[in-house]
Amino acid sequence: MYDELLLYGVTDRHWLNGRRLYDDVKESLDGGVTFIQLREKTLDEETFLLEAKEIKSLCEAYHVPFVINDNVDIAKKINADGVHVGQDDMNVEDVRRILGEEKIIGVSASSVEEALCAEKGGADYLGVGAVFPTSSKDDASDVSFEILKEICEAVSIPVIAIGGISKENVHKLSGTGIVGIAVISAIFGKEDIKQAAIDLKKETRKALYD
């Protein structure tokens, strides 16, 4: 799973500007995104379900893991690879009971305590942030590089950083212990999504592994 978490793309309808989400996700996959999370906060259930099925099929064609943000019911209905939940969503144990042992469960964490609790509950990976200022989540609390490093050292499951990461600042995360990054606008907010993914993946690999 470590390689699959290198460049984790999180969708956001805010950046579509009249384009289809399917096309944006395809461009990101063409650019080398290694993991996709479908994040929808405004769609009705039926539309969300149809969209999730479409994006799932696309990710399958690229052999890239596909998870749903928060909505465990949708993830189960379409047999997604898994789900990502926050601290205010369903707890990990309940998600695992619903989806089964083989599914991927990611959990957001912003402290060592939350990280250890998620790992104990059965999380497969952690998304830790926000590591830089971000406009995508109003309630995102800042996580210092020191706390990020402490979380990586405290758990045995892979950790990815999220929040305001770009190709210009990803190098600052070098040495923290993360295995990858999760981004929204750094890919989906760009005019050339494919090239943005190519460039960011290159910089991320350089920062974390070179």
From TrEMBL:
Its EC number is 2.5.1.3. Its cofactor is Mg(2+). Residues 7-187 form the Thiamine phosphate synthase/TenI domain. GO terms for cellular component: cytoplasm. Binds 1 Mg(2+) ion per subunit. The keyword Phosphoprotein does not apply. It is an enzyme of class 2 (transferase). 4-amino-2-methyl-5-(diphosphooxymethyl)pyrimidine binds at Q37, L38, R39, E40, K41, N69, S108, K137. One of its GO terms (molecular function) is magnesium ion binding. 2-[(2R,5Z)-2-carboxy-4-methylthiazol-5(2H)-ylidene]ethyl phosphate binds at T134, S135, S136, G164, I184, S185. Pathway: Cofactor biosynthesis; thiamine diphosphate biosynthesis; thiamine phosphate from 4-amino-2-methyl-5-diphosphomethylpyrimidine and 4-methyl-5-(2-phosphoethyl)-thiazole: step 1/1. One of its GO terms (biological process) is thiamine biosynthetic process. It catalyses: 2-(2-carboxy-4-methylthiazol-5-yl)ethyl phosphate + 4-amino-2-methyl-5-(diphosphooxymethyl)pyrimidine + 2 H(+) = thiamine phosphate + CO2 + diphosphate; 2-[(2R,5Z)-2-carboxy-4-methylthiazol-5(2H)-ylidene]ethyl phosphate + 4-amino-2-methyl-5-(diphosphooxymethyl)pyrimidine + 2 H(+) = thiamine phosphate + CO2 + diphosphate; 4-methyl-5-(2-phosphooxyethyl)-thiazole + 4-amino-2-methyl-5-(diphosphooxymethyl)pyrimidine + H(+) = thiamine phosphate + diphosphate. Keywords: Magnesium, Metal-binding, Thiamine biosynthesis, Transferase. Mg(2+) binds at D70, D89. It comes from the Bacteria. SUPFAM superfamilies: Thiamin phosphate synthase. Gene3D superfamilies: Aldolase class I (3.20.20.70). NCBIfam families: thiE (TIGR00693). Belongs to the thiamine-phosphate synthase family. Condenses 4-methyl-5-(beta-hydroxyethyl)thiazole monophosphate (THZ-P) and 2-methyl-4-amino-5-hydroxymethyl pyrimidine pyrophosphate (HMP-PP) to form thiamine monophosphate (TMP). PANTHER family: THIAMINE-PHOSPHATE PYROPHOSPHORYLASE, THIAMINE-PHOSPHATE SYNTHASE. This is Thiamine-phosphate synthase. It comes from Kandleria vitulina DSM 20405. The lineage of its organism: Bacteria, Bacillati, Bacillota, Erysipelotrichia, Erysipelotrichales.
